[in-house]
Amino acid sequence: MSSELKDEELPAAVHGFVDGWQSGDADKVEALFTEDAVVTDEGQTHRGQAEIRSWVRKTINLFSTTLTFLRGREVDGMVGASYRLEGDFPGGVVDLEYQFRLNDKGQIVQLDFAQAAA
Q1: β-pairing verdict for 108-115 and 33-41
Q2: Which structural domain, as residue segments, surrounds residue 13?
Q3: For 1-14, what is the mean pLDDT?
């Protein structure tokens, strides 16, 4: 079952990730993940806090971007938050869905990135 979510209905960890990333606050972003979390980004998988910390530190300030919220959804325990990213990265504009799985404490256990649905 899928349900639509407004921006203000997204879980705190989703807002924390986006806000922390946009402000370049690596410590804030890293604190949102569980010890055994998994992140998949650009075809690479990062497992556990050490690998995720390394991924965050290498990528958080690579590009300057602005985000525009497009839509949110919850389906089968996954929270999807879609944004239009505009910035100084190759291509300059992309619509992405950040796909979060959270534990019962609201921490991120899994994060994947996918093209946002039209």
Answers
A1: parallel
A2: 2-115
A3: 93
Q: Residue 45: in which H helix or E strand, if any?
A: strand 44-47
Residue carrying the six token digits 């959804």: 73
pTM of this prediction?
A: 0.94
Total structural domains within the chain: 1
Question: Token digits for 20?
Answer: 């922390």
The tokens for 8 are 């203000």
CATH number at residue 30: 3.10.450.50
Residue type (1 letter), 92:
G
CA 46 – CA 77 distance, rounded (Å):
21
Q: What is the pLDDT of residue 1?
A: 64
Q: CA 107 to CA 49: how far, in whole Å?
A: 12
